[in-house]
Write a structure and sequence with these properties.
The protein is an alpha+beta fold. About 55% of the residues lie in helices and about 15% in strands. Helix 3 packs antiparallel against helix 8 and helix 12 runs antiparallel to helix 13. The longest helix has about 35 residues.
Length: about 600
């Protein structure tokens, strides 16, 4: 028999996760103050949401699934708006020649997984617990908000280097599904939600840093082998073997096969698509692994063909056509063809999509429910007005914080790698000041590990730069640069540890923003002699030929009689150093 719809108040209370039916179980509102406040607040919300749903249904026609479609669309829009900048950096990477180019496919593949799973039979029991939905959903959404809001303030540029914002995305999506559709739906869509974690760049950076040169050398070896039989280009003897000379209409020019073109990005892209396909198909695990392996070989082979095609087009139609017309899109075309071919070959491996060709069987009925043939299953979460309000509020907070991630562009690139290079800081210039190398401390390796360095520079006012000298009260500024590949050593030996070791007394400390998403620490301390110093220090990632390394930058200056003015001047000086370093990094990248 059909279950009657509960009254509006009882359903709102259930949806809010506050209580079940009140009073005598009939759903009549109680007379308590909390109940009256909740009722007065929830009634207009329910009315407005019901009005929007009704308008949509009248426009598209009725149907039991239409309200859920509207709710799913609303949740998807909330996710996109909340993470607009983070998702935008992923989408902009598609088509670029970088090893992580295809990470932008992860959100789209996740959506396709959701659509595929929702069209498959659901054989779980029709049992729901709205209290559990809130118990699971609220901590997930709250954690996502805390990560995006608190993370940049505590981790500074490392938050963007490690792309922690993308780690919070699956948490928010999981919480949104639990609140809007129930934990049972979250369990059903666990694979697409977990798939979003694959958009996180650091694991690929760690793995592919070691594979990049090997795959590139393998690709270059295959290209050299083919060119022996088909003279489309002439390999040059100097360099690392990646330079090729092409002749068109009597004119010679050189083309380079960089590591980004070596096939790593295409193989990674296929692994993402293949992992999603393998999650949906049924068949022996060994055959799934064989299908993935063959796909990787095929995609890599097509990448070799792509390079040879570019050589052939450059030889026939010139360098401009090959690099400006063919090169930007031919990689995507070959990738799509390779993926399509592997999907066609899937049946040859005895693999088939789960649920395909099987009759849909109704799920076993829940205990206590009639098993009448053709009886419609109830909607897991009939009303979700309060849940949608919570998601809208949380999404708004995340959207504000996520939009501010653009401030990291001064010091980092789209997917998080640093723009600052190890030698860029030496090129930083501050108007009115001259910089010179003061000293090098080799004993710093005892604390910061092998491969580290500690260099001290001194900034002095230039002759005639009275304004700059007055702003800083004429005192020289010392800049210490500690560079180390061991990030943990910077946490083990802090600046405060050094001050305490020398019996300096700390007089004050504050966190300050230097721009570019960079947060520094300002410390004022007193020497045993009574002299007073001000220090501004920060840590950031830098790029080197061998990968990422890390630097601690410490600016120090004696504090004159006007301590407040001196501290402000050093802080302004630090902002000038950061801005100049970021500008130098942008010029180097261009």
């Amino acid at each position: 028999m059909a279950v009657p719809s509960p009254p509006l108040w009882a359903q709102l209370r259930r949806d809010a996760g506050l209580a079940g039916p009140v009073g005598d179980g009939s759903g009549r509102p109680a007379t308590g103050l909390a109940d009256r406040v909740l009722r007065s607040a929830a009634r207009p919300v329910r009315a407005s949401v019901a009005g929007v749903e009704g308008a949509l249904l009248r426009g598209v026609g009725g149907g039991r699934r239409r309200p859920l479609l509207f709710r799913a669309t609303l949740v998807a829009v909330l996710v996109v708006v909340a993470y607009q900048y983070s998702l935008g950096t992923l989408l902009r990477s598609i088509g670029t020649q970088t090893p992580l180019a295809y990470l932008g496919l992860v959100p789209m593949i996740s959506l396709l997984l959701v659509a595929a799973l929702l069209h498959m039979p659901d054989r779980q029991r029709d049992i729901h617990d709205r209290y559990l939905d809130y118990i699971v959903g609220l901590p997930l959404v709250g954690t996502a908000v805390a990560v995006v809001v608190v993370g940049p303030a505590t981790m500074s540029t490392f938050f963007w280097l490690w792309r922690i914002d993308l780690l919070s995305l699956p948490l928010f999506v999981a919480g949104a599904i639990a609140l809007a559709f129930g934990v049972r739906m979250l369990w059903r869509l666990r694979v697409p939600v977990a798939f979003l974690v694959l958009a996180w760049p650091p694991p690929y950076t760690l793995v592919f840093n070691g594979w990049l040169d090997a795959v590139t050398n393998l690709t270059l070896g295959a290209v050299h082998l083919v060119l022996r039989a088909v003279p489309l280009a002439v390999p040059l003897s100097y360099g690392d073997g990646s330079l090729f000379q092409v002749t068109h209409a009597g004119q010679r020019f050189v083309l380079s096969v960089a590591s980004a073109c070596g096939g790593v990005n295409s193989v990674l892209g296929f692994l993402l698509v293949g992992a999603a396909a393998v999650a949906l198909v049924r068949g022996p695990r060994l055959l799934r692994a064989a299908w993935l392996g063959l796909g990787m070989v095929l995609i890599w082979s097509l990448d070799v063909v792509r390079i040879l095609l570019i050589f052939a087009s450059a030889q026939r139609w010139g360098e401009g056509f090959a690099l400006n017309v063919l090169h930007p899109f031919v990689g995507l075309v070959f990738f799509a063809c390779g993926v399509s071919l592997m999907m066609v070959l899937m049946r040859r491996f005895g693999l088939g999509f789960a649920g395909a060709g099987r009759p849909r069987r109704p799920a076993p009925p829940a205990p206590g429910r009639a098993d009448a043939p053709g009886a419609a299953r109830r909607t897991p979460v009939p009303h979700a007005a309060v849940a949608l309000m919570i998601l809208a509020a949380a999404g708004s907070v995340i959207a504000v914080s996520d939009t501010q991630m653009s401030r990291f562009s001064l010091l980092a690139q789209g997917l998080g790698p640093p723009r600052v290079e190890a030698l860029t800081l030496a090129q930083a210039s501050v108007p009115g000041w001259s910089a010179s190398r003061f000293a090098t401390y080799a004993w710093g390796r005892l604390y910061f590990g092998s491969g580290s360095s500690w260099v001290r520079y001194v900034y002095t006012p230039r002759a005639g730069a009275g304004a700059a000298a007055d702003a800083a009260l004429g005192a020289p500024v010392f800049l210490d640069v500690v560079t180390t590949p061991h990030l943990g050593s910077l946490g083990t030996y802090t600046v405060q540890d050094c001050y305490h070791f020398h019996d300096y007394t700390q007089a004050g400390q504050a966190s300050v923003s230097l721009g570019g998403g960079l947060t520094a620490t300002e410390v004022v301390y007193t020497l045993p002699s009574g002299a007073r110093w001000t220090s501004v220090y920060w840590e950031w990632p830098v790029a080197t030929a061998s990968g990422h390394t890390y630097q601690r930058i410490v600016l120090q200056q004696t504090t004159a009689a006007h301590a407040t003015s001196s501290e402000r001047s050093l802080l302004a000086f630090a902002r000038q150093v950061v801005s100049s370093t970021g500008a130098a990094a942008a010029r180097a990248a261009a």
